Amino acid sequence: MAEARSSERSLLRKALSPSYTCATPLELGGLADGSLARSAAARLRDHVSGCARCQTELALLKEFDNAAPRPDEERAVSWISARLERRFSEASAGPSPSRTRHGAALPRRSRFVALNVGGFAVAAATLAAAVAIGLREGRAPELAQPSAAAPTVLRSAGITTLSPAGDLDAPPNELRWEPRTDAASYSVQVMEVDYAELWSAETHDASIALPPAVRARIVPGKPLLWEVVAKDAAGGALAWSGKHRFRIKM
Amino acid sequence: MGGWGARGHRVVPRLPRWCLIFRDGGDLEALSDADLVSNHLAAGGGGGSIWLQELFRRHYTKVVTWCLRVAGDSEEAHDLAQGVFLKAQRHLGAFRGDSKVSTWLYSITRSECLNYLRSRSPLNDPLDDDVAEALPDDPESRPERVFEFRSSVQAARALLDRELTDLEKRVFTLHYGDDVPLQTITRLLGLENPSGAKAYLVSARRKLARALPRWRACERLNA
Fold first, then answer.
1. Predicted ipTM of the assembly
2. Cis peptide bond prior to A164, omega within 30° of 0
3. Which pTM was predicted?
4. Domains in chain A and their CATH numbers?
5. Which residues pair with A220 in a beta bridge?
6. Strand pairing class (A166-168; A244-248)
7. Which residues in chain A have their CB less than 8 angstroms from residue B119's CB?
8. How do residues B7-40 score in pLDDT, each as one tens digit?
């Protein structure tokens, strides 16, 4: 019974996973807001009308776009939103290094002083002009003294993939992701949209080159998925990236 | 920073750095999301800028509401939403402007939420056992028999699309396609019936069990 259920789950997963012709969330967004070209929208609408997967994605996207807290969620949503707002405004007031032409890192406060316009006189004139035209102060940038930004707490362990993603002009040469300090190695997998494996490999780095034989199988218009799993020294999974889609433009 | 082609919205010219002083004082609320992204990137795109703060402020409610429904707990939802906005901040330079910012944020939120769910409870949903028990004791409706059309995933897709209601399709897709637990689906879809998503899963499977003999007969005729 357990085996049958597992096999059933696997079949349903295949039937309900994105197919070769399924739309990405961005394409569905274009369909929803009418920004897609007429021919592309007609083609997509035709597909969506017969695809449970895309119908669901489209409905969820619309639900997200109009998401308003239900009465029992209101208190938690405003509490979390207030914390996030505080966290991101603190981040903007904190040290945010930017490089001058000479490559020296300056805190954010200094960046606005070190304008790229040739010195104090121009800055003073600019400021005077700004006052003269009635610059509103209510929304001025917060230029507080640099302070330590709020620590980032992420309990949802994951890996951020860097590339490839979305529509590409040519087959990617490599897969890249952000390294994790606690990872001893990474396991990488490239697969078809039905999760059939195309290629997999192990590496100690935060990138890996795609062999020519794999690149040759990445053909225009065909979406593929890839995923990376971070492992500890004993080979146990620490975090994974989730599946990310990419394809070569037609 | 480069390659961000504004399409379908107002183009904000790339200004010299000093001009940003004027823009800082402008009416932020009058700027579109795309303008805010453009200004943030023009200012260097690092750290938080007032444009980024305004952009995020506009979208906190929808992202947080979504994360709360997925996590079902305020602390976890906070961490999840924070992860979404940090990722958005880090990758804003890759935003190409050919979709709405909210659509782009949805794709990040969706991916972060699925990662979160996988990290929390990989695959097994105890409610599945309840679903199996709720099915009639008829061999034809047992899971292994209901989905015997394994020869054709295409045929399975067509059957699911034809037989199920929109809500049943959503429950099926989230549960079987993305491994989302039934309790989470209940919150995400705002299902208010007593047994939530489980009821839709059971009714959908009954429908498929009833439809299967007809389906097989058609397939035999077409063979």
1. 0.78
2. yes
3. 0.60
4. 2-65 (no CATH), 76-132 (no CATH), 161-248 (2.60.40)
5. A248
6. parallel
7. 156-158, 239-240
8. 333 434 444 443 443 444 457 888 889 889 988 8
